[in-house]
Amino acid sequence: MKLGGKHIGFGLTGSHCTYEAVVPQIQKLVDSGAKVTPFVTFTLQNTTTRFGEGEDWIKKIEEITDNEVVDSIVKAEPFGPKTPLDCMVIAPLTGNSISKFANAMTDSPVLMAAKATMRNLNPVVLGISTNDGLGLNGVNIMRLMASKNIYFIPYGQDAPQNKPNSLVAQMELLPETVEAALDGQQLQPVLRIY
Q1: 91 in helix, strand or coil?
Q2: What pairs with residue 7 in β-bridges?
């Protein structure tokens, strides 16, 4: 499956340390000929960290995609019935958003776009980044892995000695994962060694 002509939604949640690895993947989707519509959580919009200011990340994402970010639930809702997405990517996906998505709690523009995409039976691709993937959020990750039309960017323990519960997707595999998901396949192996 080629990405040219596909409409990809791209949601970013509040794993600020991961943006540097994710943003180049957005560029790759655009370079592949996909139309990319970005969605951001309220955390990304309003938080300044040592990894940068939210407004600077938004500006960079809008420049790459040539689209304004979707920054409210009201703006995200039409991406179900009116303007369907061929695929919705959420990367990085924090533990907080993992738990909400696995339990159908739609409280951000990103999760609304994912819900809208699932409504249309189109694939949702997740790029997890969480310090409790092998802790309390493990059950939520497995719930999502067992759900129809949800696919994972292959992931593994990024720092098993210092952060034994941490799981992070290998973001460089994002384009391949999206292509496989559009064909209804999970890119394998899904568990990788860092």
Answers
A1: strand
A2: 35
Query: pLDDT for 144-168, tens place per residue?
Result: 999 999 999 999 999 999 999 999 9
The C-alpha atoms of residue 177 and residue 159 are separated, in whole angstroms, by 23
Q: What secondary structure letter does DSSP report for 140?
A: H
> Which H or E element spans position 116?
helix 109-119
Contact (CB, 8 A) for 87 and 117: yes
Q: Using alpha carbons, list the distances in angstroms from residue 157 to 130, 167, 184.
A: 10, 5, 26
The pTM score is: 0.96
Neighbours of 98 (CB within 10 A): 25
Q: Are strands 7-12 and 35-40 parallel, antiparallel or unpaired?
A: parallel
Cα separation of 50 and 123, whole Å?
Answer: 33
